[in-house]
Amino acid sequence: MIRQALAVFRKDLASELRTRYAINALLMFVVVTLAVIMFALAGETLTPTALTGMLWVVMFFAAMSGLSRSFVAEEERGTTMTLQLLASPTAVYLGKLLFNLLLVAALNVFIVALFLLVMDQFVVSQFGLFWLVMLLGSLGIASATTIIAAIIARANTKGTLFPVLSFPVLLPLLMAGINATKIAVEDVRWDAVWPDLQLLGSYIVVITTVSFLLFDFVWKD
Amino acid sequence: MWWKILLFFWIAAFSAIGIVTPVAGDLGTVGMYAQMDAAKLLPVKFTVVDRGRAATEEEGGGWLLRGRDSHDREADFRFAERPADLETAEGWLVSARYDTQFHRVEVAEVLGASPAFSFPFIPGLEERAKIIFFHVPMAWMTVIAFLVSMWYGIRYLRKKDMDDDFRSAASAGLGLLFCILGTTTGSLWAKFNWGSFWNWDPRETSIFVLLLVYGAYFALRSAIEIEEKRAALSAVYSIIAAATVPFFVFIMPRLMPGLHPGSADDSNAGPVLSSGGMDTAMRMVLYSMLAGFLVLYGWLMSIQMRLHRIKLRRAESAA
Amino acid sequence: MKKRYLIGGGIVVVFLIIGGLSFLNSSVEYATLSKAEESGKRVQVTGTWVQEMSTHYDTENNRFIFYMRDEDNRVAKVEFAGAKPNNFDLATSVVAKGRYEDGMFKASEVLTKCPSKYEGNPDGDHPDGIKKSSL
Amino acid sequence: MHVQAETISKKFNRRAVFRDVSFTVEPGEVFGITGRNGSGKSTLLRIVGGLLTPSGGEIRYRLGTVAVAPETLHRSIGYVAPYLTLYEEFSAEENIVLYARIRGLRHTHAEAQALLERVGLPVDRRDPIRAFSSGMKQRMRLVFAILHRPPLLLLDEPISNLDSEGKRIVYGIVDEFRRHGAVIIATNDAEDIAQCDRTISVEAA
To answer: What does residue C94 show for φ and ψ, rounded to 5 degrees?
Structure first.
């Protein structure tokens, strides 16, 4: 099962590397968004906490513009049936989840790196914690959006529907993630971050389990 | 048939009781306001202990009598003139304030004689406390309709019966209606009582999330043409949403400080759940309204189902 | 197949509870007056109105001035751009939104939180004229 | 592969495509599904292939005496249809490697070459399937279907877009897989029907 999931993941990765549908558009999206933010804030001094909020806004919208790709692409190219004939739903789900996870993690690393580079005021006090939160955040975003991408791939208005469906589901993650990142940035007490990490962790388990159980109904007609 | 008439009268009657029943304070409230806002007139209910006498010139004239409130506290009440039904009335509901100079209650206006039934006067809420009879049942129905919608969604996934999908969608529609009503009433009320329409109080956040979930649910439904697919996908979405919504609806508002009753910085669990903290009469009206709204929801659901069946039959006979 | 849903459902419930419990440990951060002064940002301070100190309404500039005590027991002058809020005298706590400037908290919005007990006022200090009847 | 379909019906938006279709396919048999355009041949084939859930009825699959669970059905089925799209950004051999890997099979370069030769595709083409002609794509679909040697082959209009050589290859495969398991063909073509041992006609309800 794991090996099949890995094969699906490798297929998506090879396909993405060959066509570069998502990667190029996403990198440009991030650059453009950051440019707009810098343009809008020209001369303003912002606190690290305000910038943390902005970082998550960029992360959320970047995820919203890229993560539906894996399923929508199958639907648009008409290969959904091919994949249904090739692999079990579980293998497909895990493979796509893995692909989305890699995509969102790479994207977030890129966003954070750019943020640190261009935003002088963005100073992180606890890098270990910061990256831990980023990792958990990426995991959560990937697991929540994978199942929703599978849902919207079957709908008519794919692009606009994705953020609409994702936002309410992602809200607990966003709240805990933003809070935890603020703590990592501001360097307040370490133990203050525990509740947020606990919430992030349980959110990831809950949403992944639910998606895992429900994917069959989404994937099979 | 009979139960629909009963339901109509039930809700109408308890709405009327909720709205019409006067709010009446006692001597405790009058005394409290004397120290804060001496000029403010409050509704006070009392029973007559002593029918009293005409007040002398030094006492300001009028009529003086002795009254007792519901907590067995007594004080002198001065009416500007001899009350009309002095001999028959066992008590009065009056608009009054406490006079700290003469240490007596100054009656400005008689609101009613021999008052029977009243809600307690809650400082800071006053007549506005009555929103609880409407707002709270609406909020409850919002959550209940969502859970019912999810329940029928799960049933659809198990049995693939299109009627279950329709029930799920109908329940979500009613839930959205109650959600909008609850949000609007709450928001208007908040402007008058808390000072702003919206303040991201944890409870406000939770109803906002529910509103988003309902909106997303219908956006998804409208975007899928094949009925079976629409049924399966919207059921899956409502289950996913239900896995994340409890954080907002049941946990966060109780554990975080906020403006709503039942928040973490409150001493009780809110008016509905805690046993104390609410006047018996108000509690009775609130529970009756909750029951009425619940039956109303059930009735609306059955109307929707019947309408659905009629439409199906017409479509069949047309084909 | 059935077992799969049972196990999955069990995991979901357990972790929903674990996630819910995280709120119990969280010390939700209020901005305090000291923090507001330090940062100079627009914040939301929760506290109580200090009844012993004078309140004042400046009709000319439409300013309401009162003193509030925050969670750290620090007292500061609050200048609210507006008339005295509804139910101000009765609020169990007040939430002031604004920023700390010129040695006082300049609030653009003041929210008043009311008592949540839906019952009458049985006890408390009574003025001399009100007496418990001796039944 | 033994397939037993009992009172299968399918509805789209409450409109019945077909109702109460029952049939049995024995191992070693070539079974034909015929019917006018729009009668639901492809829909029925998709249901047999586990790609669509029927609105009513049940299909049971048996390999020897062992029942095949729906979750593992995809391993036992090869499917060819004009509406089946392969991964067109990859070349023919890359596609084969991909199928083998996802199915968890071992594959060698020689095996891939042999498969391509078998369906009459040039073995050294590096360009993606996107650049293939429709007949070449149809041959590639055959590769997709027979790679894992499934005991049940489902063919939806298998000779569409094919020249006479292609037809011969298809019928050769049908012959081979009849011995190996069972074949179901959805078609209206007389040549195809001639290959079948039995046929069933699906009529719109």
So the answer is: -125, 150
Amino acid at B94: V
Looking at the 3D structure of chain B, how many domains does it have?
2
What values do phi and psi take at A112, rounded to 5? -60, -45
Question: Does residue B136 belong to any structural domain of this protein?
Answer: yes
User: Which residues, other chains included, contact C115 with Cβ-Cβ below 8 Å and sequence gap of 6+?
Assistant: B122, B123, B124, B125, C90, C92
Chain C: residue whose CA lies nearest to A182:
C29
Angle B135-B141-B146 from CA coordinates, rounded to 5°: 135
Tell me, yes or no, whether B300 and B233 share the same domain: yes
| pLDDT, tens only, B103-114 | 888 888 888 877
D12's enclosing H/E stretch is strand D2-12
With a cut of 50, list the residues of chain B below it in pLDDT: 267
Neighbours of chain A (3+ CB pairs under 8 A): B, C, D
Position B195, amino acid: G
pTM of the model: 0.85
> pLDDT digits over C56-85, tens only?
888 788 888 888 888 788 888 888 887 777
Domain with residues D2-204, CATH architecture: 3-Layer(aba) Sandwich (3.40)
- The hierarchical CATH code for the domain C29-113 is 2.40.50.140
Mean pLDDT of the A4-23 span: 89
B285 and B270 Cβ atoms separated by less than 8 Å: no
Query: Which amino acid is residue D73, in one-letter code?
Result: L
Contacting B residues, span 244-283, partner chain A, CB-CB under 8 Å: 244-245, 247-248
Probe site for chain B from C121, C123, C131, C133 (most B CB atoms < 10 A): C121
